[in-house]
Amino acid sequence: MNSLPDLENLLRKYFGFEGFLDHQKDIVHRIAAGENLCVVMPTGAGKSLCYQLPAMLNDSYTLVISPLIALMADQVAALQRRNIPAAFINSSISFAEQLHAVRETENGRIKLLYVAPERLQTDFFYDFLCRNKPATLVVDEAHCISEWGHDFRPSYRRIGTIAERAGIKHICAFTATATPDVCADIAVQLKSPEMQLVAAGFRRPNLTFKVQECKGGKDAKLSAIKKLLEKKTSGAVIIYAATRQAVDELSALPGIRGYHAGMSNDERKCAQEYFMTDPAPVLAATNAFGMGIDRPDVRMVIHYQLPGSLEAYYQEAGRAGRDGESAECILLFSYADRYIQNFLIEMNNPPPAVIRSVYRTVRGLLASSTAAELEISAAELQRHIPESASDGQISAALGILEKAGAIIRKSRQTGTGKLKFIQDVDSLRVLHQEEKTQRSRFIHRMTVRYGSALKDFLPVNIDSMAEMCQLSPEQIKRVITALNNDILLWESGFSGRAIELADNNMTEAPLDDKELNFRREYEEQRLNAVIHYATTSDCRQKELIGYFGEKPDNWQCNCCDNCAGHSPEALLASGISENDIRVALRGAELFNGRIGAVKLAQILAGSRSAGIIAGNYHRNVCFGALRKLKAAKVEELIRSLIASGLLERVERGGYPCIRLSASGKAKLYEG
Ligand SMILES: [Zn+2]
C-alpha cells in the first residue's frame, strides 16, 4: 500500500501543492487504500483532486462518469497541462476521436478517462469496459443517481448494474450536495453496500450566518433589507427571494435590480452584466440566478424568504465570500414563511385522487374531440377538477403523469397567434416605407409581405415575424403590444404544452401511491430542517455542516448570531444587566428541573396566562421578578442562558425542562 508521503510527493509533482487541505488528506488516503467512499464536498473545496491523485498510483486507468459534458474538455485539458494523461468520450467529439481515446486507454496511455453516463449503455463501450477493467470507477455529480437528489438523471440509474456486470469493485461517488439519506441511496444504487459516507469541507469560517426574525410581514422585511443595505460598503449583494413577485417588489426599492426567469433573455443578460461589472451591485433574484456566475467579492447574501431546503440554502448563501474575506449570510425569517413553503409543497404534491382525476379528464376531453392532442391550459383544466387546490397543482399532476408514462407533453408552443390590421393596409404601407422606427419597420414589412390578407385574422408566429423584420422576438412583442387596438388587433394563441395520451387503452393512471406519499413527506422533512435551522439556539454553521453529514465534533464557528449573541458580553449589550442574569439563574435554581424554558420565562415576566394561574405560579416569589423586561426579551434571555451552558436541559416525565448547570451555579455564587 502507498503511504501518505508518497501521495504528498505526487501532490507536489503533479499539482505543485505543498500539502493537502485538511479535509482532503483523509479522503485521498482512503481512496488510495481501495476504500469505496461517497464523498460529499462543496464546490470549490478541491473535490476532483481527491480522485485524480490516487488515480496516478494505479497500473490501470480510472473511469470518471460525469454528466457535465460542457466541462469535460476543460477538465481533461487541465489534467494534460499537469502532464497527467487524460481523455474524454462524449457526444461532442467525432467517432474517430472516441475510437482514438479508447485505443489510448487500451494501450495503457491514459490515467483518467471521462465519459458521459449515456456512453456506458452502448454495447461498444460495455465490451471495452469488460476487456479493460478500470482500477477505480468514479461517479461525479453522484446525487443525479438518486431520485431524492434534486437533479435525478435516469441514465445514472444503470451505472450500478453495469459496474457489477463488468466486475468493477472499487467505486467512489462524489457530489457537492447530498444529505446522508441521499448518500445512502447512492450506495444502494451503485450496489456498493460497503460504501462509506465522508462529508468534508463544508466549514466556511469567513462566513457569518445570521437569522433575523421579522414580525409584521412584508413591511418588516423590506425595512430590514433597507437597514442591512445601509451598512454595506463595497462588493456585491444578492437578495434571494422565493417568487418572481417578491423579486419585483424588491427591485422596486431604490438601488436594487431584479433577476428572474420570467424576464426576457435581453433583460436577464443585462442584469447579469450589471452584477458582474458594477463595483457594488445589489441584485434581487430567484434561485434561477447563480449557475455559472462566480463573483468572488459577494459580501452579503440575504434570503428574503425561507429557502425550500438547507441544500439550496447552503448553495445560495455559499456564493458569499468566495474570495476568503469575511461576508454575511442573513436569513430573514417570519413564521408566516412556513405557510408559503407549505403551500408550495401542497402544490407540487397533489393528492393521488387529484392526479387520477386529471388523467380521466384529459382522457375524456380527448375522446370527445377529433384532435389527437389536447391544447388546454392548467387553469382551464382545473375547472373540470374542482377538488384540486390550484392550477399549479394541476401542472404538477401533469408532470407526475408524464413521468409515470401515462401522457406525453409536447414542447412548449409560444409566440403563435392571430393578427389583423384595422387601418387601411395600403396607406399604412406608404406611410411607413422609410422604416424609421421599429414600429414603422414592422408595419411596412408586414404590409409588403401580406398585403390585403391582413384585413382578416391571419395566423402568425412571433419568431418568423422577428426574422422578417430583423428584430428580436422581444422587440416584436413590444411593438405588437404598442400597436394593439390602434393599428392592429392581436389574439395570442395557445401558449402551453399540448397533451397526448401515451396509451389509448390505459383507463387509469399508473400511480405508485406509496412513492407519492413518501415524496411529500420527504419535502416536508426538508422544510422542517430549514425551520429548525432558523429557530435553533446552537451554532448555525454547526447545524448546516451536520445536516450534510460532516461531523462537527466540538467545533463551532464563533461568529454566527448564536455563537456571538449568547456570550455574556452580547447579553449585556442588548440591555440585560448582570442582575437580570442572576435573577433568571436563581429562578431556574428554585424550580430545579420541574418546569420548561417557556414557563420559567412567563413566571419571571409576570405573565397571567391560564397555565400560570392554574399552576398557582403567580403566587411564587419569582413571579414578575423581571417584569420590567418584555416577555419576549425574557424568553430570549433564557434561551441564551441555555445556549451559553449556564442552564441545562433535562427531561422530566417526558417533558423538556431546564435546571441550573454546574457552570450556572458557579456564576451565581462565585462570579
Ligand atoms: Zn456559530
Can you walk me through this structure?
The protein has 671 residues and is an alpha/beta fold. It folds into 5 domains: 7-199, 3-Layer(aba) Sandwich (Rossmann fold); 207-334 and 529-547, 3-Layer(aba) Sandwich (Rossmann fold); 343-411 and 497-511, Arc Repressor Mutant, subunit A (Orthogonal Bundle), CATH 1.10.10; 416-492, Arc Repressor Mutant, subunit A (Orthogonal Bundle), CATH 1.10.10; 568-668, Arc Repressor Mutant, subunit A. It is built from 30 helices and 20 strands. The strands form 5 sheets. The chain has a 7-stranded parallel β-sheet with strand order 3-4-2-5-6-1-7, sandwiched between helices. Helix 5 (95-106) links the parallel strand 3 (86-89) and strand 4. Helix 14 (337-348) runs antiparallel to helix 22 and helix 15 (352-367) crosses helix 17 (391-403). The longest helix is centred in the last third of the chain and has 23 residues, at 513-535. The mean pLDDT is 89. Zinc ion binds next to helix 23 and helix 24.
